[in-house]
Write a structure and sequence with these properties.
- The chain contains three helices and four strands; from the N terminus they run βαββαβα.
- It is an alpha+beta fold.
- A four-stranded antiparallel beta sheet has the order 2-3-1-4, with helices on both faces.
- It is elongated and about 65 Å long.
- Helices cover 44% and strands 40% of the residues.
- The protein has a single domain, classed as 2-Layer Sandwich (Alpha-Beta Plaits), CATH 3.30.70.
Length: 121
Amino acid sequence: MSVRKYECVMVLHPGSTAEETQAIHERFVETVKKHGGEIQSADDWGMRRLEYDIEKQTSAHYWFFKFTADNTLVPEADRDMRLDDKVIRHLIVLDEEWADQNRVAQAKRNKDVAEEEAHGS
């Protein structure tokens, strides 16, 4: 299994308590770790107004994660979030931008090393 970089946004029911929100966050982090992953960043965006009503709610609590994990994580995390009635929407996507940035950075490093070797010889 290869480790890939992902992003996840969770939209939580506005009636969720701080303890429930924290429990959802911790459960997601544990699921990522179980699949050999690591959380790169976890941002609590707080309460935000929804563009359109979801389940008759006009606002919701948002969490945003960047993480690495193997591809077996996605079906399990998706299932966990669908079964949790406090998660009213969620989305996990492959973060292709990170891959592009890494390719550009690696190409630049390779170019710099080649130039150093050419000048050092």
